[in-house]
Each structure stands twice: as C-alpha cells, then as structure tokens.
Amino acid sequence: MENSLGQKTYDYLRRKLARGELPPGTQLVNRSLAKEIGVSFTPVREAIHRLANEGLVEYVRGTGAFIRQPDRHEIAQLYDLRLLFEPYGAREAARHMTRYELEGLQDICDQWLNLAKTIRASGRKAANGEEAASFFDLEEAFHSQMLQAARNRWLTKIAEELHVMSVAFIPSRLDPGVMNLSVIAWTWLGHARVVRALERRNSEQAGELLSQHIARGKQLVLNRFPWKGPPGNLLG
Questions:
Q1: In terms of residue numbers, what domain contains 20?
Q2: Shared domain check, 203 and 101
Q3: Are 73 and 230 in contact (CB under 8 A)?
Q4: Residue 169 is part of a domain; what is its CATH number?
Q5: pLDDT in tens, 198-236
Q6: Which residues pair with residue 126 across a beta bridge?
Q7: 228: left (phi over 0), alpha (psi -120 to 50) or beta
Q8: Lowest mean per-residue pLDDT among 82-91, 116-125, 165-174
Q9: Tell me, what's the pLDDT at 235?
Q10: Angle (CA) 89 23 75, round 5°
Q11: What pLDDT score was predicted for residue 228?
Q12: DSSP the chain
C-alpha cells in the first residue's frame, strides 16, 4: 500500500511540474504536500527523493527541497538531447503506429485547435491559467503517446524524461509572452503536420518536422530565459 501511495504522490507532483504549477525555486514542504494529497509524510519523502534523483528537485542543506532552477546552458542541453531522441521516435512511430494511435494524436491536435479558437473568440491574446494547464496536458500527452507508438521502451523512458524536464523548467510559463495565442496556434500547426506525416507513414518527414518544431521551441524558450550560463552561442 505504501508503495502505491508513493507512486500516487510521485505522479501527482510530476503532473504539477508538467503543468507549471511548481515553478523553479518552489520549496516542497512535506507537511503541506501530505495534507494536499491526502497521504502520510513517507510517500511524500519518497516522491521528492525520486524527483531529486531525476534532477528535478535539489536539496538545500538546512532549508529543504526545492524545484531546481537550471541555467540557460542546461536548458539548451536538454533541448539538444530532445533533438537527438524524439525525431528518431517519430520515425519509428511512423513505421509501427496503429490507426487507433493516430486517431488519438489527431484528437489531441483537435483539442489544441479548439483551445486556440476559444481564446481568439474571447478577444484575449493569451491563455488564462486553466487554459495554460490544458495546453501543457496536451503537450505531454502528444509526445508520450507518439513515443509509445515507437515500440521502444528505452527510447520512451529517456525521451519522456527529457521532455518533462525541458517543459517543467520553462520560466514564466503563464506569462502572456510565453503562452500567447500565436504560440498555441503554432504548436497546434506543428504537431498537426507531424500527424499528417505519420498518417502517410513518411518516417523521414515525420522526424524532420518534429525536429524543426523542437528547434523552434528551443529558440523561443531560450530567448526568454534569463542569462546565467557560460558565454557562447547556445542556439546552434
């Protein structure tokens, strides 16, 4: 039972990270989290320890556990690794994906498009908190489902970890400059193009389109990321 509670707590914290609800620098307080999730301290400690092993949390001696605040160079490295693994996953998915899996990805794209239309119809230029959370849920679901379709569990494990870390560390994720209508529409279009390539079983095009999308996302994030890393051109 304790192990299942530990997994439940871990999944809960990972989801909050992926949705931007635990921004870098947030302190993780055992007592507060245990009350929020409805578990004892032990599952919370276990979950935080797992997140620390994954590089998402760091311990500050005498203070506690905090969501890591990576520097710009680390973010660039995460995106560079995504550019190595995820396009390969897209190429493999094009070879193995079932019709049911394709329909699942298309459904996610349809939800993205509807989200963009809702924001535009409201007259707003950016997503509100609930819409931003939905956006990141869709982002995580798309990449996870596509990687699952590659039929390579090691690739799935590595690529999903990289994706969660790169997304979780985006600064000011709810800032209108980050989650604006243009970004949401661009995200929908980029993923919709990948789905069309997957549907045609065009593995090379699927990989290339996803590579272009990740590279553009990297530039968007780094352009807004505070400079704390070593000198040099990190955009490649």
A1: 2-67
A2: yes
A3: yes
A4: 1.20.120.530
A5: 999 999 999 999 999 999 988 888 887 654 443 333 333
A6: 180
A7: alpha
A8: 165-174
A9: 30
A10: 45
A11: 47
A12: -HHHHHHHHHHHHHHHHHTTSS-TT-EE-HHHHHHHHT--HHHHHHHHHHHHHTTSEEEETTTEEEE----HHHHHHHHHHHHHHHHHHHHHHHHH--HHHHHHHHHHHHHHHHHHHHHHHHT-SB--HHHHHHHHHHHHHHHHHHHHTTT-HHHHHHHHHHHHHHHHT-TTTTSTTTSBHHHHHHHHHHHHHHHHHHHTT-HHHHHHHHHHHHHHHHHHHHHHS---S-SS-TT-
For tokens 């051109």, the residue is 233
Q: What pTM value is reported for the model?
A: 0.80
In a domain, residue 233? The reply is no
Q: Which of 43, 67, 91 is the last residue of a domain?
A: 67
pLDDT, tens digit, for every residue of 55-69? 889 999 989 999 988
Q: What is the identity of the amino acid at 105?
A: L
Q: How many domains does the chain have?
A: 2
Closest by CA position to 106, among listed 149, 165, 153:
149
